[in-house]
Amino acid sequence: MTIDEAPSVGMVKTQTVRLIDPPDKLSLESGKSLTPIDVAYETYGTLNRDKSNAILLCHALSGDAHAAGYHTKNDTKLGWWDRLVGPKKAFDTDHYFVICTNFLGGCKGTTGPNSINPQTNQPYGLDFPVITVSDMVNLQKRFIDHLGIPRLKAVTGGSLGGMQAMEWAIQYPEMIENAIVIAAAAHVTAQGIAFHEIGRHAIVSDPQWQQGNYNPKVPPKEGLSIARMVGHITYLSDYSFNTRFGRRLQDKDKFDYNFSKEFQVESYLHYKGSSFVKRFDANTYLYISKTMDYFDLEGKYGSLKKAFEKVKAKFLILSFTSDWLFPTRQSKDLVNALLANDKHVSFIEVETDYGHDAFLLEGEKLKALIERFLIT
Amino acid sequence: MTIDEAPSVGMVKTQTVRLIDPPDKLSLESGKSLTPIDVAYETYGTLNRDKSNAILLCHALSGDAHAAGYHTKNDTKLGWWDRLVGPKKAFDTDHYFVICTNFLGGCKGTTGPNSINPQTNQPYGLDFPVITVSDMVNLQKRFIDHLGIPRLKAVTGGSLGGMQAMEWAIQYPEMIENAIVIAAAAHVTAQGIAFHEIGRHAIVSDPQWQQGNYNPKVPPKEGLSIARMVGHITYLSDYSFNTRFGRRLQDKDKFDYNFSKEFQVESYLHYKGSSFVKRFDANTYLYISKTMDYFDLEGKYGSLKKAFEKVKAKFLILSFTSDWLFPTRQSKDLVNALLANDKHVSFIEVETDYGHDAFLLEGEKLKALIERFLIT
Hints:
2 copies of one chain form a homodimer. By secondary structure, chain A is an alpha/beta fold. Chain A has 12 helices and 14 strands. Chain A has 2 domains: about 5-185 and about 295-375, Alpha/Beta hydrolase fold, catalytic domain (Rossmann fold), CATH 3.40.50; about 195-285, Rna Polymerase Sigma Factor, Chain: A. In chain A, strand 13, helix 10 (about 330-340) and strand 14 form a beta-alpha-beta unit. Chains A and B meet through helix 3, helix 4, helix 5, helix 6 and helix 7 of A and helix 3, helix 4, helix 5, helix 6 and helix 7 of B.
């Protein structure tokens, strides 16, 4: 049985809970605080009696709580990690109780910049406070407490999700048995910040952005689309671009010598940009790309060794050969810092041409590694 | 004496000549034709009696005819290849007569999209025909004929300039003694096309672009700036971004946690974008990035081996270890195709952290290699 034939968790529904209500509030790393806060979540599988089989999935920049299964019978889009979450999959829902929440600042049910600011009855827009990975984790912690789960069998995620997984193991060492960190790093590179800033600049330069106060029905489509196109290049690899598209032309045999989309790769990028605009919020993109830029374990804890000093989790660190957004050398920095603290860490650089997106796509390879890690 | 202490060609002036006037015209690869055509150029050094010491420099996407020296006494900006062109430099103006023209479709004196269309008395805008590398070379050929030079000691350039140098050696084999091709390739990669298309899309999405008919005083600044920011990332290397900027903050000790430019790298990118807008034309950017995308020696000649079948020039192919826009593997493809034709070719991969921009920056290293190649 290949992973695509594997059973699914089936039909699921995103739930929402008002987790924080005034006078309760969430204190943020910026010094500000936020209330009220809703959290959107999905769960798969069954929590066992001693509540020891819960696995928390942390999603990446454009993800949401919908990690597995489908929402309607005719749904063409499965949850973002359906390849890894389900019966007999890497995160086997026959054995584990798998939880995924939309992170703080998201636009898929958890309170974020496009939520209604109770003080104005308008969307927050730029009045929303800046969110850090630590803030996201603190809200997830409240949610796990709310479920009455004392300790997580594992916390995991790719990219920004991997950053959250690390922060979990650092901030709540007693609560994390295993941390599976995929295609992530202690910080984004300067080049990564540069790509993010171009995306943000494209959004705020779009006249429809309106200083962040756009009508949700007239969003800054072009700006967000450009941001996504830029991002998408960083998620693939040079190799995968060449094999998938090369110089193949778009619906033509020879050049038109004009400004039509001559190449398939141009058409593909535009498709990626315009389909993203239909499902994602521009201000949220601003905030979450910032969240990634701010993340910096060395900066926050003084050194990477100090950052991991108190962790108790066993770590599985996975990187991808063709990932140039979070290159393997950065994963090795994590491994070295954990080893310097005599922590338990397994590390594998997975051979793949998919680039950074491999954390979403390499279902079979990841299953083999994760399954074994969780059992031993 | 280091290269920076080396003498300069001194004060120079860009000249312009009306090279083509109706009924004469230039036939283009697209099937269209263009007339009239002005060519802007500079020359350095002295043409010898038998006209055998001329070297033609071909510039890259954002370059111009001003390759060396300065235009005014207080000029803070030297010509784009001043590190390589001048007395005792790689292209030694004590020995060689060095020529540089602004290419066809440029915005620095040679006829291009921002020139006046004599049929409308308005700038051409999108009525300008699409230009290929072959068209650029054909116009340069007319210019060299105009100077009465029968054969070039060398033709050279980096990036798009290197593409022109190859096309010269292929189209006019009898006229080229040496071809020095730096940081170039037989075609841009699919990823390269993708980056170009994002830049183009940013320009045409800018409301000030006005379907290409913008008032030159109110150009699509934001779009062109984004295009340049994207381009700039591809010209540097991940390593150089990390060493030059890392995570250093911009005029602050700690995060402001807002949408100001927190990191130096953000500020730098914006500076690069906004300074480019002051010196470059948006429509020209559309056309010239297309010119690069269209270039494809395999596509045009059937195979890379066939492309080089009739060349007579000796080739020097130079690539840079950290260049990911035109990676060394692509330079090796050129070398292999030349060798398959039993042509004379020298190849060196230059160790550098500067990325693609090394062709502009590695003056000392390039001097050592080019000087020796031209003498032997």
